[in-house]
Amino acid sequence: QVQLVESGGGLVQAGGSLRLSCAVSGSVFKVNDMAWYRQGPRNNRDLVAFITTGGRTNYADSVKGRFTISRDDAVNTVYLQMNSLQPDDTNVYYCNVNYQPVEGAGVFGSWGRGTQVTVSS
To answer: Chunked in runs of 10, what are the mean pLDDT values of the chain (121 residues)?
Structure first.
């Protein structure tokens, strides 16, 4: 069974940095797109950043130039480097990964449990 193990959240002052990590735990054939989300104002989850298997990235306008998503396929881990953090970035951040459990299978999605990021002013 695949699980996503998140780490790296915490409390930081405005202007500071944090690095989130999300590791895929369990056996998979292939990890596809990986992404980070955070809780939206209507209890939905808003996309923060994603990265494809080819390394193409996309970011929410609010984090462009401050956050960087990356991945290490050798260890099936996605990272989110967050710089110049602001109080508005305070939120629970969720990792999302699409993967194939075995060769020839369809693509499944999995969510992490979330990691809290708090930015003080």
So the answer is: 93 98 94 96 92 97 98 97 98 96 92 97 94
Strands 30-39 and 45-51, how do they pair? antiparallel
> Residue 41 class from Cβ within 10 Å (0-12 exposed, 13-18 middle, 19+ buried)?
exposed
Q: How far apart are CA 1 and CA 24, in angstroms?
A: 10
Q: Do the Cβ atoms of 102 and 29 come closer than 8 Å?
A: yes
Which of 51, 40, 87, 83 is closest to 64 using CA atoms? 83
Alpha helices in the chain (DSSP H): none
How far is Cα 105 from Cα 57, in angstroms, rounded to an integer? 25
CA–CA separation, 101 and 2 (whole Å): 8
